[in-house]
Amino acid sequence: MVDLRKKSYLKILDFTEEELRYLLDLAKEFKRKKKKGEFHKYFPGKNIALLFEKTSTRTRCAFEVAAYDLGMGVTYLDTSGSQLGKKESVADTARVLGRMYDGIEFRGFKQSDVEDLAKYSGVPVWNGLTDYCHPTQALADFLTIEEKFGTVKGKKLVFLGDTRNNVNNSLMAMCAKMGMNFVACGPDSLWPDEELFKECQEIALKNGCTISRTQNVDEAVQNADVLYTDVWVSMGEPDEIWQTRINLLNKYQVTKEVMNKANPNAIFMHALPSFHDLNTSIGRDIHEKYGLTEMEVTNEVFESDASVVFDEAENRMHTIKAVIYATLKN
Asked: Structure pTM?
């Protein structure tokens, strides 16, 4: 029997396939309850803190709504509302918040920071994103894939672009754990960390799937069920690297032609936000500087029937609710 009480959710590799399966099934049940309007305020009187070094629409809203649905109180703390890392160490912040809250979410830069919060707080800590991984996103992505295909076993996911980033790392680990074939497709200078890549390959071998990498888009997307991409420059990286990334990643843009080379019922996924048009200030700035109207994905693909990006966004709430419940229940 799976028991995740008092366990922190820091990275995918900390969990077994059975535990991840439990969280996915629990998320499906919470989604059903939400849609049916069934009571699930199981945690009245409990409170959680949300620590944000990096801003986010989906992560903040997903955690807040999930907590409210469970009957909990929520305190949001960003860099202007806490002393984390400025006047107070992560360890000291953890020991303070652990005395006041039942759980802590952290979204920021260093994986070591979320690890220290878990080490010193004495309460479950949930990783809303670090530079190393994005485990709540991967869980939502797999719920979405299962909703579309019924299973992830034996399916093929291809991540195109900067394959060393946090979303790629968590998807690669999730695929290895859950028996889904994974291909990292991008320039070799932006391939995944070698140690993590080999660890995922070893796990995949035991679970009947493969983890591979290539620079060849046509080779990668053949027989693919899921094409996934992310922004070319992540939050916190300097603006000066845009030209370098554009030069490196332009040929990994997800276009209609690329989608047509995958399986006929293949879906498109993205963690969001996405630069697929000129309706954002950053998108317009990039257009003025470099002449691009679209970046990692074309608007045609983003708005197509194959795109499930807003299903993913909603599913962040349901999977995060499952993580909170599983780790805080009595």
From this structure: 0.96
